Give the backbone structure.
Amino acid sequence: MSSNHISGAEIVIRCLHEEKVKFVFGYPGGAVLNIYDAVFQQNKFKHVLVRHEQAAVHAADAYSRSTGKVGVALVTSGPGATNAVTGIATAYMDSIPMVIISGQVPTYAIGQDAFQECDTVGITRPCVKHNFLVKDIKDIASTIKKAFYVASSGRPGPVLVDIPKDITAEKYEFSYPKSVHLRSYNPIVKGHSGQIKKALSLLLNAKRPMIYSGGGVVLGDAASQLTKFVRAIGSPITSTLMGLGGFPASDKQFLGMLGMHGTYEANMAMQECDVLLAVGARFDDRVIGNPEHFLSKPKTIIHIDIDPSSISKRVKIDIPIVGDVISVLTELNDLLSKEKTKQNPSLKHWFKDIDQWRSMNCLSFKNDKKLIKPQFVIQTLHKVTKGDAFITSDVGQHQMWAAQYYPFDKPRRWINSGGLGTMGVGLPYAMGTQLAHPDAKVACVTGEASIQMCIQELSTCKQFHLPIKIINLNNRYMGMVRQWQEFFYGNRYAESYMEALPDFVKLAESYGHVGMKIEKPSDVEPALKEAFSNKLKERLVFMDFITDQKENVFPMVPNGKGLSEMITAEDL
Amino acid sequence: MRHIISLLMENESGALSRVSGLFSARGYNIESLTVAPTEDSTLSRMTIVTSGSDEIIEQIIKQLNKLIDVVKVLDLNDGRFIERELMIVKVKANAQYRDEMKRMCDIFRGRIIDVSDSSFTIEITGSSSKLDAYIESIDKAAILETVRTGASGIGRGDRILKV
Ligand SMILES: Cc1ncc(C[n+]2csc(CCOP(=O)(O)OP(=O)(O)O)c2C)c(N)n1
Ligand SMILES: [Mg+2]
């Protein structure tokens, strides 16, 4: 054996170095002990020890969401891998580029029901972009290279690499491939020029043009191209939950978020437009409601997406443009710069309609002297952080309020689970985000039910000195569940009440953090100011806001209804 | 409508389950699925017989193309093609049935490939509907066992699916 032979475990580490990985989120165990021994002997990336593998994957996912780089997680075989599945499925649904390395029992023991064996490749197959079981040490480097390439190209997504323990102990020479070619995988980057020309002319000649942007704009780093284009053509624009920040929310062309809890003006404009441009969005059920109702008002639909299978999946598309959003938008901008009339003369009239819908003021709410309104907490958070924080959220009413009342002007600032809707992501998302942006303000907007799904991570936050601010909108209910039960199940609140809540202040303190309980509206702003003050700059602050228990999220498009069939706060 | 989809994919363990998993996860029909390596042993050729509206077939093709192991996909129904399936049938061939079974086998251009005192084993190839027609035509009580490969298909003339 020549002297340049290193162990399979060291090869794994060297690959991660080649990929310039800065953080690996993980948790050790038998099958990855060789890899951990190699982790111990290097210092090019930092290993972040979580307290549950689910959190490792979520944190790596948020690292990716907030930076655009590939997130990396490392877990052991069997229970380590199964614990990671929720995190992987969450990343898959939102197309987040990640590489997950899982340990596997030795190759000779596979299929024997060995200790901590599970069919990780089989279990994760439906929730990864691709996965690999490496059976030979010779293939480790090329497989990891492929994994990073597949994860980050085309429509991104998580890729899992399962590595049996015996090959991490064997020795082989290390050589990292410079490039990869997969004959079966050639993502299309450039859109069809003819279609792009047609799209532009349709938009310029529409009576009621509308733009609808999604997570693809954020993931594709196309926010500035989109902003340039939309400002130039002057049309109104809305965004999905995942697309927030892709166009500045403070711009007056922005109509707010659309969908189940979208604004009145955004949903009405979606319904009433005659030419719709969808960019990196996928017409899902929470966004356009019932497709038949959506199409009941005739419209010409243009759809830009990197993934051909997203086009005409739920709604028939008239002008499909398959390509990378940034490349297509750049081409649109170039074409537009050559046009004589850039703005459509019908816009004035169209904005008159829109302003009328806007005047409904659908997000208004009444503050109370005694009870803290959750919306008010988010508005104050926006004010205190000057709109410049990274906001992670869990899943529930608090998530919708954060999306509605914290306007995002920049992409990659709003980190939440849109597709899978995974409770428990909030805190690990804040960890991954804070590690990626150590000097930034990071707030986790959560609920008393969600936060308890990954609460153990308070310990990780202590170990790594993460000064996250947790905004717990504590309504003593699984609020979103309770809201549906109130509207659609005759107020029968089946199992949606959170009994026996912990004392969150003491809980935070027991982990070595600062806890605050805020019970009066007049204390909201001072408490937030204190939490974000220099004095607590280095500390995690757990803010337990005792909010109005019965507050609901409005407007609301009931499940299966059309976008213009919203219930607003005034209706009830 | 019934469609025959041909695809070339990497001949790797797990590739088949990615395809079958896709069909079950998305609720697409599989009438039959056949797969075997091609003359290039790194590639497998698969034929899937499925059915669905035009929109569903379009989605199936797109979703198959999205699988990393899938190299090429062709909907044979987009052009002219030939379809063949092999069926092996064991039928009663005692005194009561012997002549009749020989006659039906000839009509359907089958071949008797094994004979015993009481049974014939018959091989028949053709389109799936021809095999269905054979089964329809003989006395059900005479059928002892059937095994079918599922359809394989190939484009006519210059229509070629190759890497
Ligand atoms: C892991 C998981 N389990 C169940 C659900 C269903 N679910 C959606 S919202 C919600 C309640 C969330 O309660 P809380 O965190 O207190 O937020 P609130 O709605 O009260 O703001 C539940 C149970 C989910 N989204 N994720
Ligand atoms: Mg709650």
Summary: DSSP finds four helices and nine strands in chain B. The mean pLDDT of chain B is 96.
